[in-house]
Amino acid sequence: MVDSILMIEAFSDALVNGLIAALMVVVNLLPDSVSDAFQYAFMQRALLTSVLVGAICGMLSCYVVLKRWSLLGDAISHAVLPGVAIAYLLGWPFFVGAFITGALTSVGIGAIERNTRIKADAAMGLMFTASFALGVVIISKLASSTHLMHILFGNVLGVKHSALMLTFVASIIAILTVWLAYRPLLLYAFDPQQAQALGFNTQIIHYGLILLLTLTIVASLETVGIILVVAMLITPGATAHLLTDRFTIMLLISVSIGILSAVIGLWLSVVFNVASGGSIVLVAFAFFILALLFSPKQGIVPRQWRHWKMG
Amino acid sequence: MTTSLPSTMAAIEVTGLYVAYQRQTVLEDIHLTFPAGKWTAIVGPNGAGKSTLFHVLTGSMKPLQGSVKAFDEPIAKHRRAGRIAYMAQREAIEWDFPVSVWDTVMGGRYGHMRSDALWRRLLPARWHHARHSEAVHEALVAVNMLDLADRPIGALSGGQKKRVLLARALAQQASILLLDEPLAGVDPPSEKLILSVLRREREAGKTVIMVTHDMPGARRYVDHVVLINRFVRGTGTPEEMLSEAKLAELAVSSIEQTVNDRQIMPVASNSSGQG
Question: Out of the domains of life, which is the source (chain A) (predicted)?
């Protein structure tokens, strides 16, 4: 048992090092002024973490946007805070605590919605702010305010090897799940009643998707933090939605935008010495604005142009 | 398999069904038999519980009480086997969703793909078993939409959207077709096409069950009619059930019901009045 865990660790270590090496090959092709920043080990860890987080957030954001789950993503990301704090207190892995409070909050939202006259949006707002407040209180008792700031807004330059490994494993799980359950997830997002009629267990798909969201949020904790991860769970998918009418292409565009935003944002944050989480999100938003203006079908400029040409 | 069954057999049998949204009962004490290999129309005023009945049959709503069987077995088993196809109302679908006509119709095959080998299921759609793409192809030909197969669903007209939803149900090659207002808001050529497709399905031995407001169409084509307004208000042949007198009775029942609801729950009169 212990042997096999050690073996998996050694194997993932090798994989991570290999991935970093592969990334550095690409980075070294760039001009020196860009690649110089990535010669330090901490920058390489930050780069790989950003790529992974950008990829899985981009992937999940397609489902979040199409399923109109933006507010739910917001709710879960806030709700993981007390879980992270308690896990820190008890020495558990972050993910376990985060998942427990994330799941409890989504169950609480459902219970309020079903049993009272309070509507879904108010129920979500109520539960996630309460959960978040609990997290802030616990953390203020435990750790310094810098620590809180890092959880809230990320600190990708300070990513430790263990955190990178967590992100790596979470990414593998997320990608495998989406691959294996591609059709049920797609059908559930598009037409849940059809999924029911075909005998798919939509409860499992629903909670599986929530679990996947929680996993992604926890994996993004160190990079963009739990406040800004919401942006990464909406912006790439929303941008891709403006650019294509094919789901697989939407996934590819969204993942690419996630990765590009993370990498460019990271580089800009080093060059201008600003907060990395914020700059990653701003780059993603810049992609969205570009798509909003210039998307061939949906963009404002091409539309106006057609309008003007028609007279 | 259904083609060889005797026509007297029940495709779907509903016993003692009660369904409610929150505290409002929408279906009460429903006992119904849908004969196999026949075309049944479900008729009733708006809010009579017709779509709710379909929600129960497709498994997206749990009844308070009662049982639903298909071919004498629990209906869930037949859902998993892909034998029950469902065509939703147009409003139930997100037409902005980034899928093409072909992909949407392929959605009817997702249930059957579960029985494919694992390695196939992990591949993109075009490397799947040929029987799936053949079924999609056939269904698109049947509804005359093959040349629009690559079009995004958001770019279709109202009648074309209905035909895509019908094609998805056909592609499933199910024994029972449940259709929620397949003729609502379609242009006359689409209506004609949809009715002739359904007639062909019935001739091939399928059980067709549709909710409809189209009385002339129902009088002309269906074998069996069920009148519903919270309770079952009558079952029988189209001649009996769709007579002017019977339909007037059904309309009166819905007015009486609204009045009753108002007396019982004066506070809720706004919402029940619309039902």
Answer: Bacteria
With CB atoms and an 8 Å threshold, state whether B98 touches A199. no
Q: What are phi and psi of B209, to 5 degrees?
A: -125, 120
Collect all residues with Cβ–Cβ distance below 8 Å to B147 and sequence separation of at least 6: none
Could you tell me if B161 and B101 are in contact, meaning their C-beta atoms sit under 8 angstroms apart?
no
Sorted by where each begins, the domain ranges of chain A are 40-227
Amino acid letter for position B30? I
- A40-227: CATH number: 1.10.3470.10
Q: Which residues of chain B have pLDDT under 70?
A: 1-8, 125-126, 256-275
Contact across the interface for A245 and B86, Cβ inside 8 Å = no
Work out the number of other CB atoms within 10 angstroms of the CB of residue A77. 29
Q: Which of B80, B86, B103 is facing A194, going by the closest CB pair?
A: B86
Q: Can you name the residues that pair with B232 across neighbouring β-strands?
A: B228
Residues from chain B that touch A200, judged by Cβ atoms under 8 A, are 110-111
Give all strands of the β-sheet with B65-70 in edge-to-edge order: B24-35, B10-21, B65-70, B73-74
Which chain A residue shows the shortest CA-CA distance from B109?
A198
List pLDDT tens digits, range A22-41. 888 888 888 888 888 888 88
pTM score, two decimals?
0.87
**Tokens 């390695």 -> residue:** B119
B 84-103 residues with CB below 8 A of A?
84-86, 88, 92-94, 97-100, 103
- ipTM for the complex shown: 0.84
Write down the pLDDT at residue B5.
47
